[in-house]
Write a structure and sequence with these properties.
The protein is mostly helical and about 240 residues long. It folds into 2 domains: about 1-170, Up-down Bundle (Chitosanase, subunit A, domain 1), CATH 1.20.141; about 210-240. It contains 12 helices and 3 strands, in the order αβββααααααααααα. A 3-stranded antiparallel beta sheet has the order 1-2-3. α5 (about 80-90) packs antiparallel against α9 (about 145-170). The longest helix is centred in the middle third of the chain and has 24 residues, at about 145-170.
């Protein structure tokens, strides 16, 4: 679902890290998972490595949305499945991620997530799809010649994606998700603490209206009885005069 994009992107960026320019990595130079080729494609056509190193958060989000999220129809996939496919796409390409999802769902593997794929994804339990997709993804990575170099990190990533995707499927994101690392609202500390239920003792509850009315009635009765007794004091002292 599109409401999960911010949450999914934050998780992907935790796995992607910062600057990387390893010869063994087929993706080449990357910053926060954005390759130089994609940076040139979506942000700055004549960009160099120095430009890529200074990529902004907004530019990162633009690349990930256009090249990966939209490519796998992340806005239309069920909660949790959207993140699992999205991360797979970032790590191994949108086309491959789509085909593996289609294989799991038992539909034609054309690498394009359309109505048939979406209908099949919605018809199966999200947890089953996520688990099966992560198993297939891990098996694919283990067959790669670069597994000895990157296998430990890839394995940990797939395990993390599985756990987070299952969590998202059970607890979808709120539609109005804030941007990454949004600052704390500019309010007084006491107000923040009160909103979170920490650091501020609860207020002493006032007596319910009905209870208060009962107390007042009792007091009035006592006072009335006392007044009546004093009014008849001569009778109490000299009973004969009150016959």
């Amino acid at each position: 679902m599109d409401r999960n994009f911010t949450r999914a992107l934050a998780l992907v960026l935790e796995s992607e890290g910062g600057w990387s320019d390893k010869k063994a990595d087929p993706g080449g130079a990357t910053m926060k998972g954005v390759t130089l080729a994609n940076f040139r494609r979506y942000v700055k056509p004549d960009a160099g490595k120095a430009d890529l190193k200074k990529i902004s958060d907004a530019q990162v989000a633009t690349v990930y949305r256009r090249f990966y999220w939209d490519a796998v129809a992340g806005a239309e996939l069920p909660d949790g499945i959207d993140y699992a496919v999205f991360d797979f796409a970032v790590n191994s390409g949108p086309g491959r991620a789509a085909k593996y999802l289609q294989a799991v769902l038992g539909v034609a593997q054309d690498g394009r997530i359309g109505p048939a794929t979406l209908a099949a994804a919605r018809a199966k339990p999200a947890g089953v799809v996520i688990d099966t997709l992560c198993d297939a993804r891990l098996a694919f990575l283990e067959r790669l010649p670069t597994w000895p170099t990157f296998g430990k990190g890839w394995g940990a990533r797939v395990a993390s994606v599985r756990a987070e995707a299952l969590l998202i499927s059970a607890q979808p994101a709120v539609p109005s998700q804030p941007s990454l690392r949004s600052p704390e609202p500019d309010v007084a500390p006491s107000a923040v603490a009160a909103s979170r239920g920490h650091g501020v003792p609860p207020a002493t509850p006032s007596a319910p209206p009905a209870k208060a009315a009962g107390i007042f009635a009792l007091v009035a009765l006592v006072l009335g009885s006392a007044a009546a007794w004093f009014a008849h004091l001569p009778c109490h002292l000299l009973g004969a005069f009150c016959q």
